[in-house]
Design goal:
Shape: globular
Radius of gyration: 14 Å
Distance between the termini: 40 Å
Strand content: 15-25%
Length: 101
């Protein structure tokens, strides 16, 4: 197993945005979306963060509130982040369905 060159810090705001999105999905689809689905989706989103600066390309932000940060995206999530040395700090997260000003 390869040790990462980066250390990742996920701010409470970014973590809360991921959890909140999937809690809302669970409320809307309570008959077909269960707690196991919620946990799986939250874990997948969080684990995708560890691809930033390795397999997820660095981009310029597309929304104003993220100016001054870098942006990376997976298929479902966009992340605003900063880099200080070998530390990547995830500032904010936004699901692709909600990417607007």
């Amino acid at each position: 197993m390869q040790i990462s060159d980066y250390q990742y810090i996920i701010t409470p705001l970014a973590a809360q945005k991921i959890r909140s999105f999937y809690r809302n999905v669970a409320k809307k689809y309570r008959n077909t979306y269960d707690y196991a689905d919620l946990l799986h989706n939250v874990r997948s989103a969080v684990f995708s963060i560890y691809g930033i600066e390795k397999i997820l390309p660095r981009r310029q932000p597309t929304i104003k509130r993220w100016h001054g940060y870098y942006m990376a995206n997976t298929e479902k999530w966009y992340f605003a982040y900063s880099i200080n040395g070998n530390t990547v700090t995830i500032i904010d997260a936004c699901h692709a369905q909600n990417m607007h000003e």
